[in-house]
Amino acid sequence: MTEIVLRKKPATWRAYYEMCKPRVVMMMVLTSLVGMFLAVPGMVPIDILLWGNIGIALVASAGAVVNHLIDYRVDTIMQRTLKRPIPQGKVSPTQALVFACIICLLGMGILMVLVNPVSAWLTLASFVGYAIIYTGYLKRATPQNIVIGGLSGAMPPLLGWTAVTGSVDPGGLLLVLIIFAWTPPHFWPLAIHRKKDYAKTDIPMLPVTHGDALTKLHTLLYTIIMLLVSILPYLTGMSGIVYLVSALVLGGGFMYRSIDLLVTERPQAAMQTFRYSIFYLIALFIALLIDHYL
């Protein structure tokens, strides 16, 4: 196994920033923001809007750093992750651990003191679910890792909701269910694209253990589930016709990509599906927000 190279220069802020997976955290903050706005009929209190999302972002970033730390030996094998800060020796494992602890404690302190204890404890539970249970165990335990472990990654809209209300309500849980159903058809196309990389590791991703054909079928089946779940906000009266039309149009696009992935052998189909899935989630939550205020 490839060893981590010795650091030749002091760690830079960019290396620490990269370990926080900023693009992933920004998506989480977006869904957290939507959760906040959907929890109230009017404007979210500015202090909650600011400190709630800062606290959630810090704890989510800490989870990303722990993910880098636990997976650093695997990262030295996979082409996609070889240039991450720890495999490249830009940050040592000890430095990464200390950094994760600092920003996690800071985020928890902000949520506990400036927001409310419910959102703080739920955010900590999400951190433990992703950084410890998923990354440390489930990821290597079953090909259904992304399905089971997807719950922790689906929590941000509920965290935003509880930051405002201080309670766990059906509306917030419904937003969690949408992301939970979205996660498998979002991630499996990427796993297909990176199959050769995963085959070098001890991570039992579905394309490696059961082949591309079954993974593509699973992607389509979960896309159907996701589409059905996505209309629940309208059926429950949480959202109106603007959201329903948006959900059906966006879901139709996802269905097209999933069917195309299933029936075609084009190498680029997997990444096209993956990229669309990101656009889908962002657009869907923006549609929820627009509908809420219309």
Give the SSE layout.
Layout: H1 13-19, H2 22-38, H3 46-70, H4 72-75, H5 93-115, H6 117-141, H7 145-153, H8 156-165, H9 170-193, H10 195-199, H11 206-210, H12 212-230, H13 232-235, H14 241-263, H15 269-293
Describe the structure.
The protein has about 290 residues and is mostly helical. It has 2 domains: about 5-170, Orthogonal Bundle (Tetracycline Repressor, domain 2); about 170-294. The protein is built from 15 helices and no strands. It has helices at about 15-20, 20-40, 45-70, 70-75, 95-115, 115-140, 145-155, 155-165, 170-195, 195-200, 205-210, 210-230, 230-235, 240-265, 270-294. The longest helix has 25 residues, at about 45-70. The termini are far apart. The relative contact order is 0.11. Mean pLDDT is about 90; it is low at about 1-10.
CATH topology of the largest domain: Tetracycline Repressor, domain 2
Beta percentage is under 5%
Number of strands: 0
Number of domains: 2
CATH superfamily of the largest domain: UbiA prenyltransferase
Average pLDDT figure: 92
What can be said about this structure in brief?
Helices cover 77% and strands 0% of the residues.
Features:
Tetracycline Repressor, domain 2; 0% strand; flat; 294 residues; mainly alpha
